[in-house]
Amino acid sequence: MSENVSDSEESGGHLSTRFWPSTFEERGVVVPFTTPMLAFARVRRDRKEALEVLVPGMSGGAGTYVIGWPSIPEMFRLSVHDRALHEKIYEDKVSTPRGMRRCAQEIAMTGLAGIDAVESAKKVHQDEENERLLTNYFLISATVEAMAPGAAKLTLADVTSSAGKKKTREILDGVASKLGISSEQLYINLELWSDMVAPVGLASMPQDCRLRRLLKQIEQFSGMIAGWGARTNADVDGYGTLTGEVARLTIEIAYELVWSIDDYVTQMPNTLRNWKRNELGLKELLDRLSWVLDGWEHVLAIWNASAEGPIYQQAEALAEMVRMLPLVPKKELDALKSQAWGKLENAMRSHVRQLQGWQTGETDLELALRIEKRRAAAL
């Protein structure tokens, strides 16, 4: 980080006017706080590996305030949920999208953010378990099709029932022999692979898993918001155009990552033969995809909450969304893409200046409740 953050904890914080981070780690991961003043906060590690939080537009300012993590309860009136979340993040030293998702779900299950969050967390947990099992089945099926083309096609019952498991094991024993590894190692590798890619799933699956589903939602949103201003004549400040362009460029980068992840399945023999090396490559791609899409669930939740409302509410939602649009960091882009994202950074800087005074620092119960509902929807 090029910012001077060494004294952020001792002084309670400092102001940064940077909009476009160099790396994902510098950008930080979205924290699902329900306290209005912290609605767009991100957490990251400083140079000393301690946690710090980035709060954009605090008290109506155009920059981002960087505050040492232990100082948060002293500077803000946190809800009970946010105090528990703050402590959990500190205990687990959370600074990645996957870690934050797990942490947020654990706190949501306590009921401190309301019954909607509990029900949402339960559903998310069940959905993710189902997606993990389905990913494992389709990955085993893809392995059999690629490495044992003469074998009978596997059904879902074959990898879940006792009789089916025996049939599956016999086929995979033959695959392991071809690969020159033990059957046990093949099973372990396939299990690791399916657990790793479960958030995005496989291209062959009839039902999209979470990240692939989120990517399609962003794609639909991008197409819709691009024409919103023309349809409504309400985008006088250009918020819709800016948001749509950030979404469009994010989609391009995310799909490139998804296709690279899918390539490991199309090159099945090579992937399994050189699993140790490919495991690292897959993990890097999946981590990067999680970072690219981090924050978009919250952006879409803001829009969805206003999508059926009057035009003025949609315009207000867009103004709110501009503050938390996740720009892909500079070092994650090639020279051609950097030009487009650089223009977006300048546009965001200009737009955020126009939004002076949107936060007053006062506790707004209705706003807090709306944020709770959006956070529940974004779990």
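[next item in queue]
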Amino acid sequence: MNIVVLAGGLSPERQVSLVSGTGICRALRSRGHRAALVDMYLGIPDYRGREAEVFTAPDGLCGEVSIQTQAPDLEAVRRSRADQSPRLFGPGVLEACAAADVVFLGLHGACGEDGRVQAAFDLLGIPYTGSGYLASGMAMNKAVAKQMMERVGVLTPPWRELVYEEKDIPRLVGELPVPCAVKVINGGSSLGVTLPDTRRELTAALEDTLRYGGHVIVEKKLFGRDIAVGVLGDEYLPPVEIIPQCGTYFDYTAKYQAGASQEICPARVTERQRRIMGEATLRLHRALGLTAYSRADFMLDDDGRPWCLEINTLPGMTPASLLPKEAAAAGMDFPGLCQTILELSLAARRAGQ
């Protein structure tokens, strides 16, 4: 098949996406597909062939990419674009996607997981991997996802949705409980997440989060073990436990820097805990109408109760990511995982999902 692996984009998770996309592209090529990596925002302005010829480009247009300890400077990315267009689709991107048999979405964050890209592809008749536009948008919005958890009986920490301005911060600091977690409504990879323990820290957290737009959820801060559970098709995968090595919080650095965290898969949990988390993940996956794959994140408290924090529709596919580790524990290598996601997604598109 001719496949565009769409990655990069213009979200704080840009570098994570490029690393995911590079691995996906090479895995698909190892399975005999003609795959090419395309940066959604920067496009392929330097490629001199026709769009259909990108699929036979050397190494699928993949380069050497890595994830730095800090999120990328998106203003610098904007300045580096050749045509300086405000469009999120860069030069040649839509043409290459239209020439493909399917687009494998390697995007992460608001630029790719919030349903806008999926809606555009639906309108253009371009098949893609993962969930549809409505399910993606619902899952990406942490408040909507929380409402769905409560509706289908998935245990989640007490929370509150806020839209605020700088003038509201003194009042909110007096109202909100601490310790708590402040999370940008559509953030990912732990970007836009702070965990204040005091009112002074809460003030700083609310001030800092304004740079993401001032739309957040604030939830009770839990203490315990970080567990993730993936879904592939209509089955849940073995859970993985994440143990940060350089702190107590599984943040952006701990997620993507080598040696910054330890992952244990299958997680050392009881059979009952494994079943509760797996069934909760599947229940939420189905209730949101998700397709092919997803990953839910839990906190297992000191009493052994699993609390669902969020669900991801395009979970990371980097060498350090959790879903590939879960698939490996279930006996599936990375190229096989990519192939399965491809097949499940195409079946869903043919079914009108």
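[queue empty]
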